User: Fold this.
Amino acid sequence: MSEEPRRRVLLATLIPLGALALMAVYLWSMSRILLATDVNIAPVIALLFALNILVGAGLAAGFPKRRRVVATMVAGIMVPVLAVGVVGAVAGEREFHSAVSEGPAHEPGEAPPEEPGEEPAPGEEPAEEPGGAATSFTVVAQDLQFDTQSLTAPAETEVEVTLDNRDPGVPHNVAIYTDETAAEPIFVGEIFPGPDQRTETFTAPEAGDYFFRCDVHPNMSGTFTVA
Assistant:
């Protein structure tokens, strides 16, 4: 086989493999960036990535005979995305993913185990147990909304929160943040589909007004008051 046919066969093999490798690196970088980004900002970044690809493809198509120009444009797109993807991988995934439940804590069809002691009725304000040991409240999620938009608890006290998810097959959780930006979490509850219940505990912060929501459906939200 002469040198020219051999070179063509080599290029016909290496170019598709190189393209696949570049696509894999680009997709990996995008996934790291989106997983490390706030849930409210991730869709905007995904849209910008799509526009990035479309613009890059359009520019490459406009210069079919200028390989150096095309290579420079590809590098200009790939290198920043890869760099930010590495930063996202080092930063780790956002809290939303680490809180996802791996599965129900009991057998399907079996009623969830009852917690010791009496639980407040849905929507009832928290009531401190005798001796000030803990505070508990129940939040009901039904029809993609919480049954209350106001929760209260004493400052710097262990709080027990029960989420009663009554939406079949729909995941919900209760998460508490310092403010409506949801940038600094105080407590992030387990995400699980209904119908089911989960009871978790956390320590209330100092006195003030805070923000609670369902991380899957941010429109389900309210004010968490610590007195």
The longest helix spans residues 3-36.
